[in-house]
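Recap from last week: sequence in, structure out.
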Amino acid sequence: MAKRVILCYKWYEMDTTVRNLDEQAYRALRARAVMEGRTVGELISEAIRSYLGRGPLKRGTASLRALRPEPYPKGNKRLSSEIDAIVYGAHR
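Predicted structure tokens:
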């Protein structure tokens, strides 16, 4: 199980504490911030803005019926048969 850390930093004159942050994820984020010459707070702010920019999630509206099959790329017409032959053995 990944070790958890608590992250505290000052963010736009607002003190913020993030609990149960994955320690490895935080270390990787901190290393990236150092390599880019930025702060952890700047990277977290960017990630939050990016997440919020995706728009609201529409929970419960997805349906398997809405999925449509996609055609195989050219040259793969027998792909399913070839996979079956590998998985289940050649037809006799």
